[in-house]
Amino acid sequence: MNNKSRVSFTLIAVFMVVMGVLIFKQVNMGTQGIVQFSDSSKLRGSRQLELEGKRLLRQGLYVEAEKILKEADDPRFWLYENAPNGVARFWLRAAYFAQSKYQDALAVIDSNLSVVPDLKGTLNEKKIYEAMIDYQNTGRPDSVYHEIDSFKLSNADQLPPIRYDPIASIGLVSTILRLYNTIGDHDAGIRFIDEILTWTYAQEPSHFSKIKQVKTANEAMALGRWDVPSGKGRDPNWREYKFVWQYLTVREAFEQDKRDGFKGCAGSPPGQVCIGKATQALIQSDYFPW
pLDDT by residue (tens digit) across 185-202? Predict the structure, then answer.
């Protein structure tokens, strides 16, 4: 891919993100019109709480994050009636998940479906939380494996070996890795990451085919050097190295969970923090959603 193509690709990606945000806001607002300037204080207040909640999540302060994110979704911040804060609710589910509060997360999903009842991603997420509740109650991961397989199949066109979309695929991959980690199947998580990286390196024409196939996150960082200014030692393919670094960071967290003997969260009661290092790495990442 030449530099002109990469610039075009980046512009397309940015356009898709902007359009996705606008569409999401329109779905949440229904047909009640455009946000007025007088609503800016609501947006500013909820945004500050969202950022604080996300910061607390990344620090592992899940109880505190839950409290802040609930406040961000308080109806006083809603721009319209029955238009909840989708961003706050997204991170709130992460706080619930970390505390084994799968039933509470499911209640948020059901509330979202009452606003937009036929959204594919939300319907899939509902099935996943139902499977997590079954796993929590029975200790058997069968239903979670079933949902992982179904999730992969229904989103096959956005996952290797068919395709890796720079926007859509990230959340799908993150969900699958989080589920493997939570049921204690670290080998499956590692294999899935290896499959993605092997497929990515093999793409032609691609800058990934030009970089070294590194084995550790530290090696990816040392070669990419994205932390230094352009022209002062940063590798021209630093974006590709950083992509690999993100995956290897999660992979190494899976390996640490395996060494630590983390068995998953079966039997963990609601309110008890149960989260593997791989899921922590996903939450702390600036690439994966959580």
Answer: 999 999 999 999 999 999
Which residue has tokens 């959603």? 289
Cβ neighbour number for residue 174 with a 10 Å cutoff? 19
DSSP 160-227: TTT---TTHHHHHHHHHHHHHHHTT-HHHHHHHHHHHHHHHHT-SS-GGGGS---SSHHHHHHHH-TT
Per-domain residue ranges for the chain?
139-290
Q: At which residue do the structure tokens 């096959």 appear?
A: 156
State the Cα–Cα distance between residues 138 and 37, nearest whole angstrom: 51
Residue 100, SS3? coil
Residue 47 CA to residue 44 CA, distance in Å, equals 5
Contact by Cβ (8 Å): 112, 122: yes
Query: How far apart, in whole angstroms, are the C-alpha atoms of residue 128 and residue 124?
Result: 6
Tell me the C-alpha distance between 193 and 45, whole Å.
38
141, 266 contact by CB (below 8 A): yes
The Cα–Cα gap between 207 and 204 comes to 8
What residues have CB less than 8 Å from 154, skipping those under 6 apart?
120, 124
The model's pLDDT over 64-94, given as tens digits with 9 standing for 90+, comes to 999 999 999 999 888 777 788 999 999 999 9
State the Cα–Cα distance between residues 11 and 205, nearest whole angstrom: 19
